Task: structure prediction
Amino acid sequence: MALTSRAARTRSSIRPSLQVHGYRPDSNGTRRERLTALAFILPALLGFSVFYFWPTLRGFYYSFTDFDVFNRPTWVGLDNYAALLDDPTFWNAMKVTVQYVVINIGTQTVLALLLAVLLHRLTRSVLVRSVIVLPYLISNVVVALVFYWMLDAQIGITNQFLGWIGLDAIPFFGSQDWAIPTIALVNTWRHLGYTALLIFAGLLMIPDHVYEAGRVDGASEWKMFWRITLPLLRPILALVLVITVVGSFQAFDTVAVTTAGGPADATKVIQYYIFDLAFQRYQFGYASAVSVVLFLILASVAFVQLRLMRANESDVA
Amino acid sequence: MATAVTTFDEAAAASRSSRARRGRPGAGRVLAWTALVLIVLVTLFPFYWMLRTAFSNGAYLATQPSNLLPVEPTLGAFERVLGLASTEEAQAQAGSGASVNIGRYLLNSVVVATLITAGQVFFGALAAYAFSRLRWPGRDAVFFVFLTALMVPPIFTQLPNFLLMRDLGILNTYAAIVLPFFFMTPFAVFFLRQFFLGIPHEVEEAARLDGAGAVRRFFTVILPMASGPLVTLTILQYIQAWGEYFWPLLVASDPDVRVLTVGLGVFRAQTPQGSPDWAGLMAATLLAALPIIVLFAIFSRKVVNSIGFSGIK
Result:
């Protein structure tokens, strides 16, 4: 879901432009036109109601029940939420997820910013941009497996390389200390180019004369980056951060095919914990409560985004 | 959206010309190029390693782990994962006696991704037309409600959707994998609505005066004008559907309907001779990635530019 959810979130935050052709806000159309419109949106409306709206309501409902998937759910009020507070595995999952998000987003954002500036300064080649975005188009599972092989503790090429430069082999996926940073960096590799292209598009919107003026004043590239590029890019960076942070909180695929949450829950991120609860322990009610918490976290991230973007509107040239 | 693309290209052209003026090679520039080349190499190396391993003989991988070329080159790994090798042949190259049928998973992925994409693009276009070019009460309110679907994390709806599929008795069918994505994805509706809004009113008005109804205007005027964005959307949605893992894992683990991502996960969990069949695994991942790489090679300009404006505009 990464591509749509991430990309779509971007697009969703765009203000719909209403003052375009074909739109008359005061007009409700003829009866015939209304019926036609209904026919046109009917399939999408059906999909929305059955697969988005109704399950959302059910998800909230199940979070207040005890439900083992096979018998009817029984209402237990806030019991699941109370149990959450005393569940060490839940708190571990939160900790692991935050670690993952911090490492993934930290490295990815800094590197993507660097890469975007490099592209902006050096080349407009579509080929180069295609190459750097390629990892993002390959499925998570494929990427996870290739790195699982390259980072194998014994015969992976990465450890061979570490051996050449005189370092000890690292059990990347097998050690509790390395597993989360490893998975976070694998996903940094996958999302780097895509994130860089989003920032790159933002760089193209900064008018060239701003840099010309800076150059006339004798500013160095380094100084211009901090004084011009970064401040003018702030609204776009805020937007990019929200897309990537929201996606990062939902990491699942890489964990599922490499470590399956291990070793010793060291990589049991929140989404994997939900999966584990619902489909391996059949605690559907409790799993729903955990996913409500995930939902609330992501909603807060989006809320902060809106605030940030509004606060930064005046920055846009 | 068309205007957005133009802006993007114009901006690119504008900074290109100014860069030509200021381009002087210096130490900083060399350093910058070095960094860019390094990033490109790090991006490409895993793809090369996939190739190198897929064409290696699995039995010798452990003896020459740092050989940068295929070890004892062979097509054995591909024959093995496509079910063309005998058990003895497979085991001789560190594979498993159990058959892995990547061909079948490929077929399942093609069927599923094609159905999902076709549904999303067609129904998305219909809805986008109603949201952009027809007038009816509550239009913008309904559109807003549609967009809120983007806020809900997929896993939240997928738990109840799993129960729905189970209650309908269609677990382990193509229908279960396809249905939740088939009728609508908010992204497709939003993406096409943006483009449809930009089509001049006069174009459709001419057809209307000729007596064309909404259905005919949609098919003969709007869709042909939107062929570019429709192609872009189709590719994006296809790539997306192809890579989907979580949902098919929930509803379709049966070998007959298993898609590639799920099949690869199962394959990775097998350790026939103490460790995974690395050469076979890399051959399988290569086969899984190849259709997307080919698709992208053909349409890279469209996809790359769509990432540019879609993120910001």
Summary: The CA atoms of residues 52 and 294 of chain B lie 19 Å apart. The radius of gyration of chain B is 25 Å.
